[in-house]
């Protein structure tokens, strides 16, 4: 609601000379209180309040005058006309300071932001001043189950929300205009946290009374860093000095962006349906290839000992811009501090060293001697291993682990011992239970790698497909039914090398999973480039050709690297874009080469 405005600072009687102290009766205009929002929003002085005149402080309000609308103050010292009054009392004659951080006060706003000003005039033997508030008040009403940590308030037109404001003066005192302030975000802190409930909790923020040309936005954070964005006054509004603007009540929902509207009562909604921007994440996967293990004449050009290959691999990872990504075919030499430290290469090419957490402790080669188990001796090592990394500012990992996929049946194994006994092979699925901080949505993320597919062979690779499905069903049915986003080099494309015959393993895969590439293309969101260049490997499935010119035009048989997903009953993910990262370098033969025999695949996935 908007409260009645006054006509600005009272016009003083013109005086000259000076006085030795004064008794000042100070009152604030009807309509807005000073520090406590009473039910009718009346002005109420509180114990301890002080004013100042021309930089000289008054005595403090006593308990006798607590809650009164007008109070007499005594100011000592030699005072010269015009008499400029500020609240809170300050040694400055014409500067109002508003804090960069305001603190939550139940039912009210932070007294530190309760600034006002006016000019005193003589009336009999005393002086009177009717003060004008420097700020108006924004009153939000929120409910829900979240515990809030803070609000970040931004002026979309660049208007100043805090800092030191210098009030303009002339020969009669304050004119009502001002300059100054500090650009930036105003923080409203809930201290140790504000727990919302089913009924509305009012939150009051005081900001300078001025025109807000492009409106404002409030980012309301819950304690884990997820936030809801509230936008208001997008077409521009003016906040008056005596205004308390109440906005539509909202249920806190992390990840939502809503327009809120000024209303007359807290229970009324106005302006129609809110706008919403679906929150989402960027997901990636990259098979970096163990170049030092590749045989053939071309290995010279893709050796990981080459600085340009290292830079290419690192810049590809950084270039994904992913919130969470998996990497395939990690070896012992690719671990931190080792000869081919893939994490260090990515950081050197721009990936943040502080924002990303890398999970690289998942070995996968299970050794055995033939088919004879000698006791329970088994081992695991980094060999064709899967790892993942995530932006900890965007995602929280709540749980993680890995399992072995089977080559000979549709089951999976969770321990090295079981994998050893069942001759599982070298391939694993590394998983993480994730929470998206912005939206609060939770999902499973899996990175995996399958055995090599041989044309028309329903052997090990097909069992990998079935084993992977069994593990996904275990997560959804036995652990927690959340959407699953899975990435990896699955070692088969949708078509055989003749580009027309369907690969049976791909049919088995998509009978359970949805391929991001297929979904984005079916929804009409695939760019023309990726409709024709749909491969992710440089050569065929059986030969390794690394020149850039070999990259996969109309080669569905080479689209070996996939992002797939499976939705839950409670909420869904939806891919909206697909692309590959194509970093190259020039080798000694003057050809343009790629640092891996695979391309990195990236998709943007939104949450409902």
Protein described:
The protein is mainly β and 608 residues long. Helix 2 (307-319) packs across helix 3 and helix 5 runs parallel beside helix 6 (504-510). It is built from 8 helices and 40 strands.
Please name the defining characteristics of this protein.
single chain, 608 residues, mainly beta, seven-stranded mixed β-sheet, 37% strand, disordered N terminus
Q: What's the short version?
A:
The chain has 608 residues and is mainly beta.
Q: How would you sum up the global shape?
A: elongated
Global Rg: 33 Å
Residue-averaged pLDDT, rounded?
Answer: 83
* Beta-strand share of residues: 35-45%
Roughly what percent helix?
10-25%
Q: Structural class per helix/strand content? A: mainly beta
Annotation, overall tally of beta strands:
40
Low-pLDDT ranges: 1-14, 31-41, 264-276, 292-297, 369-376, 540-549
Q: Separation of termini?
A: 34 Å
Could you describe the largest sheet, including whether it forms a barrel? Answer: 8 strands, mixed
Number of helices: 8
